[in-house]
Design a protein that fits this description.
Strand order of the largest sheet: 3-2-1-4-5-7-6
Helix content: 25-40%
Number of strands: 7
Structural class: alpha/beta
Shape: globular
Largest sheet: 7 strands, mixed
Order of helices and strands: HEHEHEHEHEEE
Length: 195
């Protein structure tokens, strides 16, 4: 795995061995950032289920000013720290929160924090024919704090498996949908702000 573009483009990222983490593949990240284009420049970014931090590091490489990464695993957060140092970004550009994503959402909302871009590519849910999804992706969509963390015209990019059929609550409006293999990346804005 590597950072694809920007000032740190080409730098290799350390990834834990085994199946504990599923980093967003290079081709999927490339499609995401081709779609985002210059929108990343100057943004405050929140990455949930950050793992190795590949999405946040890509944002910083492409001109984001700051990233907050939420990762529950201490081990994975250590890889994220190593990748950040290797990419040579400024120390003030990254905050790592080692905690549950949903606890972090409530805390960030209580702190009044706001982000231009929120990224999440959580562990995939199972196929859910004939029943509502219980995946982390669906739980994020349903979380009452998440939409309040976006600035006006902010964007939430959510990854999930194509076999995981999600229900979009009324608060969200989908602006784009990218598919690559088993991965679906949905670009969402809050419905009131998307008009």
């Amino acid at each position: 795995m590597r950072i694809i573009g920007g000032t740190a483009g080409g730098r290799l990222l350390k990834v834990p061995k085994g199946f504990d983490v599923r980093p967003t593949p290079d081709l999927v990240r490339q499609a995401i950032f081709n779609s985002l284009g210059a929108r990343v420049v100057g943004t405050r970014v929140l990455e949930l289920f950050a793992g190795t931090g590949a999405l946040s590091l890509e944002c910083l490489s492409r001109g984001a000013t700051r990233a907050v990464c939420v990762e529950k695993s201490n081990r994975h957060a250590d890889f994220l720290r190593q990748n950040f140092v290797k990419a040579r970004f400024g120390a003030s550009q990254l905050e790592i929160r080692v905690q549950d994503a949903f606890s972090a959402l409530a805390q960030l909302a209580a702190e009044g924090q706001r982000f231009d871009l929120i990224l999440a590519d959580p562990p995939y849910g199972e196929k859910n024919v004939g029943r509502r999804s219980t995946s982390f992706a669906q739980q994020l969509l349903d979380d009452m704090h998440l939409s309040s963390l976006l600035v006006r015209d902010g964007l939430f990019v959510l990854g999930h498996s194509k076999r995981d059929t999600l229900e979009l609550p009324e608060v969200w409006h989908e602006t784009k949908n990218l598919k690559h293999g088993d991965t679906v990346m949905r670009f969402l804005q809050t419905a009131s702000r998307a008009k």
